[in-house]
Amino acid sequence: MFDYRVKNAEEIPTPALLVYKAAVAHNIRAIGDMMGGYARLRPHIKTHKMSQIARMEMDEGIDKFKCATPKEAAMLAAIGATDVLISYHIVGANIGRVVDLKRLYPDVDLKVIADDGDAIQALSDACTSAGVSLGVMVDVNTGMDRTGALPGAPSLALAQQIAQSSGLCFVGLHVYDGHVGDFDADMRQKTAFESIERAVETRCLIEQSGIEVEKLVASGSPGFEHTQRVDGVDEVSPGTWIFWDTGYGDKLESPFEWAALILSSVISTTRADLVTLDAGSKSVAPDTPVPHFRALGLSDEIAFVRRNEEHQLLQLPEGTPRPRVGDQFYLVPRHVCTTVNLWDEVCVIDEDGMFVETWAVDARGH
Ligand SMILES: Cc1ncc(COP(=O)(O)O)c(C=O)c1O
Fold first, then answer.
1. pLDDT tens digits for 68-99?
2. For the CA of 248, the nearest atom of ligand 1
3. pLDDT confidence of 1, banded at 50, 70, 90?
4. To 5 degrees, how large is the angle CA 166–CA 170–CA 174?
5. CB 257 within 8 A of CB 25
6. Is the pLDDT of residue 270 over 90?
7. How far does the centroid of ligand 1 lie from the alpha carbon of residue 98, in Å?
8. To test ligand 1's pocket by mutation, which of 44, 87, 90, 256 has the most ligand atoms within 8 angstroms of CB?
9. What is the pLDDT of residues 148-179, one digit of tens each?
10. Fewest CB within 10 angstroms: 45, 88, 128, 209, which?
């Protein structure tokens, strides 16, 4: 296993989010190996939200990105990304932000997703009056039931509307298969194939109607391995692979290393079996049930007794040596994306295990 001990950890005020450059580099290489290169990879940057990590991806040859917010898109455009998909439904005042971005970076191939006729009309009106052309993909619901038009005729109707709308350019189909995540590998593959089949059939329907489908973009970390092999899928868009977490790591076989851990100190231990860490819900993903993290060096049998903003109270299994105030623990978050969003900056750990600099989480928030 990767050695997470930081040689100069005493220099880091805790709690702190650590990013291990060697583990990030490993994960970038690993996904390239899984996919035979980066030509069909459009990583979702919602996991890291950082220009420095996006630069590491670009340096290795990744040249297209997916993101969730106009702020993430602006960060990507500012560092020279030329192909950016905002995989989010842009409505209301956010339309103006996207139009402004297109005006500021006319050479960036900027795309959004949509699943609603009125929203498409509003995008068209704004783009027409601003004199810009915006790419739009139809978001297709293949089973997650969060967003997305139903496959088949409803998606075809939206594709036709986009293709006929001034200021818009129909690019293709977008699918997020967040319902694909079974523990069982065979079941996961089956759900992934069933999901993507609905999108591929919809692609054929749209093409038969005479509209060109430039691309079908699909999948997150549990499904991409399977969907990337399907005819009719052009790109896959996993995000969590870059840092990995126990939420996925505990159920999926994968070559990825945990690359973002929280360094936490013991701040109180007034009872032999209880220990209080300084990493509460302001430091570790606020959106997960217990266990919120795995503490390296502590048993998985620890009980998560209570969590407040700055406190995490743990009960240790019988026989566990009592930690001392000031002892440090490395916590692997259960959900790394929402963990990263809590931090203004990360402490960067170099290949020699030294804390060397900080990087801004410059696209966190909205
Ligand atoms: C639209 C969309 N695409 C891709 C992803 C990436 O998925 P994962 O975190 O499984 O890598 C997400 C994650 O929430 C998402 O919402």
1. 999 999 999 999 999 999 999 999 999 999 99
2. 10
3. confident
4. 140
5. no
6. no
7. 21
8. 44
9. 999 999 999 999 999 999 999 999 999 999 99
10. 209
With a Cβ cut-off of 6 Å, ligand 1 is lined by: 44, 87, 176, 220-222, 237-240
Question: Residue 355 C-alpha to ligand 1 middle, in angstroms?
Answer: 30
- Token code pair at residue 17: 């989010």
Tell the residue number behind the tokens 């932000």, with chain if given. Answer: 97
Nearest to 213 by CA among 174, 165, 164: 174
Q: What is the distance, to the nearest Å, from the Cα of residue 185 to the centroid of all Cα atoms in its chain?
A: 21
CATH number assigned to the domain with residue range 260-360, chosen from the 4 options 3.40.50.720, 2.40.10.340, 3.90.930.60, 2.40.37.20: 2.40.37.20
In three-state secondary structure terms, 330 is strand
Quote the CA–CA distance of 106 and 130 in Å, as a whole number. Answer: 12
Two tokens, residue 41: 């990879």
Question: Tens of pLDDT along 236-266?
Answer: 999 999 999 999 999 999 999 999 999 999 9
Q: Do residues 173 and 203 touch, judged by C-beta distance below 8 A?
A: yes
CATH (residue range 82-237): 3.20.20.10
For ligand 1, atom 15, the nearest C-alpha belongs to 176
Q: What letter represents residue 116's amino acid?
A: D
Whether pLDDT at 306 is above 90: yes
pLDDT at 274: 96
